[in-house]
Amino acid sequence: MSLKHAILGLLNIQPMTGYDLKHLAFDSTVSHFWQADQAQIYRTLDKLEEEGLVISQLEIQTDRPNRRVYHITPFGINALIEWLRSPQSPPVYREPFLVQMFFGYLLDDREILKHIDDHIAHHRGNLAEYQHIHMPPSDEATTKRKQIFWRLTLELGMALEKTYVDWLEKCKATIQNGG
User: Fold this and answer.
1) Predicted confidence (pLDDT) per residue in 110-149, tens digit
2) Nearest alpha-carbon partner for 21 in 46, 47, 42
3) 59 bridge partner residues
4) Strand partners for 71
5) Can you give the residue range of the structural domain that contains 36?
6) CATH code at position 52
7) Is the dihedral of CA 34, 154, 28, 69 positive or negative?
8) Computed from CA positions of residues 90, 96, 97, 99, in that sequence, does the dihedral angle turn out positive or negative?
9) Among 85, 111, 127, where does a domain finish?
């Protein structure tokens, strides 16, 4: 996935400023599996505009600074759909903590258990955050197609976090019981 396509997808939902993209849309949706900072978003918006995939409109405000609102163009919608249709390679998985676990025998139990406890807290926090995201139930008659896909990605996020916590708890018990 690329930031370019995440931004196009979000702008396809509704026009937004760069600030709105980051704080009102990105941070509460795709940031759970694709992260970007504000500067990356603005650089990408500039490139998208150069490519004709988005256009921007300056909104003059009297009581606040002016806003630049970005809209996806028909060409941008076509580029997004083309990307959605293309097969994606499996991600390259890099997990520094797993390298620590692999060589964890070089640490005493207290040190590696501290790392494990930190990761348990982190993944439980993610799981709790995901569980507080409101999504209509899958059997609700008013569920819109896009909400079905949003729910599916959320369900994977929750399953991954739960699996990670379960595995970490098993690691902790194994180490505490001496192997």
Assistant:
1) 999 999 999 999 999 999 998 988 776 666 555 688 888 8
2) 42
3) 67
4) 55
5) 3-85
6) 1.10.10.10
7) positive
8) positive
9) 85
